[in-house]
Amino acid sequence: MAIVSPGFHGRRRADPDLPPGQYLTTDFPVLSAGPTPRVPADRWQFTVTTETGAATTWTWADLTAMPARDVTVDIHCVTKWSKLGTTWRGVPVSAFLEDVDTAADYAMAHSYGGYTTNLPLDDLLDDQAWVAYRYDGDDITPEHGGPVRLLVPHLYFWKSAKWLRGLTLMLEDSPGFWETAGYHDYGDPWREQRYQGD
Amino acid sequence: MARTAIPGRLTWRAATVTAVRDETPTARTLTLDVPGWPGHLAGQHVDVRLTAPDGYSAQRSYSLASASPTVELTVQVLADGEVSPYLGTAVKPGDQLELRGPVGGWFVWRPTDPAPVLLVAGGSGIVPLMAMIRTRAAAGSRTPFRLVHSARTPADALYATELARRTRDDAGLDVHHVWSRTAGRLTVATLNTHGWPPDFAPACYVCGPTGFVEAAADMLVALGHSPRLVKTERFGGTP
């Protein structure tokens, strides 16, 4: 089905850095489902819980004492905007999994405020995902998920959970908040996996 | 958290524009005929895809403005936008475009929901909230509804005539406007006076530009509303 709108020309040509169906933005739109939780950094905690219930917890002081990386990545929101070349500082998620004994293939990210999102554990390893605490050279503001958010830029940005408080490792996949509301379980922007069934 | 399963694949459908009406000098409503439309919930949105003669295509999301099964989109024209000027000024009855949806199972209101409802709209963020008001009327619901709508001036307010009529005819619907150019921004006092007491545990829906939504949602929480009952959606117009 190709319906052509003769009067529509569009302003932009295809940009190789933009996944299909995305448009470029230079500001930083906000998407969230409810009020913004305010979590003071000195009360922030991050807990990794395995499928057997074994839990390990880090504080803000623990986090900021770990070896961090500065990364520059493109981010793609399912609401169609993409922002290129964003800079973050964070600790690779794999650093929190080094001493964890697990057979899990999936993880559920949990946020302050109750938000959840599911990801394959493999997508959190290596240089793909960070527990981020600085954006563009500054603290991450609450509306953008501060003090600490997940950063998984190769998936649609709803997978990069704001106000991150924990990861629960799972043997089986299970849908999180938006995934339950009709969005894709994996969410690869380059395959345009926006909604269930895409 | 609400659980709404949307099974199956959302396919692109051909939609034909059947009517166009001006809402304000910069906003128009398109009525669309969408064969096979499965129906929608108040608050859901659709994706629209336009394809130029050379094959270039662009997608945007728009909230549904109408009660199901009617499919209406209200498009606020952004002067530097890519899609909204076409939909908001050029498209005419008989034209076709592609659409898929409905999408979204969170920012929705169902006539079976028993709680009183507070709608807080900033500018064109009223669109999905208007779908709730229209759905309530279409269902004959008696659920108490209050709308607080902030717009720059009366000339900028979407659906003003219809809201005036509904305030008169739809029992249990109250509407309060805030004209921000003269009265300033939405305040806690306004939400306190024209909202519901937190004790009533109303379902609160807030939609508008990011700054408006952040401020209004914070005020509702400060007034004592449970964050779990405050649902937000950003809608500042899409380019």
From TrEMBL, chain A:
Signal peptide: none annotated. InterPro entries: OxRdtase_Mopterin-bd_dom (IPR000572), OxRdtase_Mopterin-bd_sf (IPR036374). Residues 34-178 form the Oxidoreductase molybdopterin-binding domain. It comes from the Bacteria. PANTHER family: OXIDOREDUCTASE MOLYBDOPTERIN-BINDING DOMAIN-CONTAINING PROTEIN, PROTEIN-METHIONINE-SULFOXIDE REDUCTASE. This is Molybdopterin-binding protein.
UniProtKB/TrEMBL annotation, chain B:
The keyword Iron-sulfur applies. Residues 10-109 form the FAD-binding FR-type domain. Keywords: 2Fe-2S, Iron, Iron-sulfur, Metal-binding. Its cofactor is FAD. The keyword Iron applies. InterPro entries: Cbr1-like_FAD-bd_dom (IPR008333), FAD-bd_FR_type (IPR017927), FNR_nucleotide-bd (IPR039261), MRET (IPR050415), OxRdtase_FAD/NAD-bd (IPR001433), Riboflavin_synthase-like_b-brl (IPR017938). GO terms for molecular function: 2 iron, 2 sulfur cluster binding; oxidoreductase activity. CDD domains: FNR_iron_sulfur_binding_3. Pfam families: FAD_binding_6 (PF00970), NAD_binding_1 (PF00175). This is Oxidoreductase. It comes from Spirilliplanes yamanashiensis. The lineage of its organism: Bacteria, Bacillati, Actinomycetota, Actinomycetes, Micromonosporales.
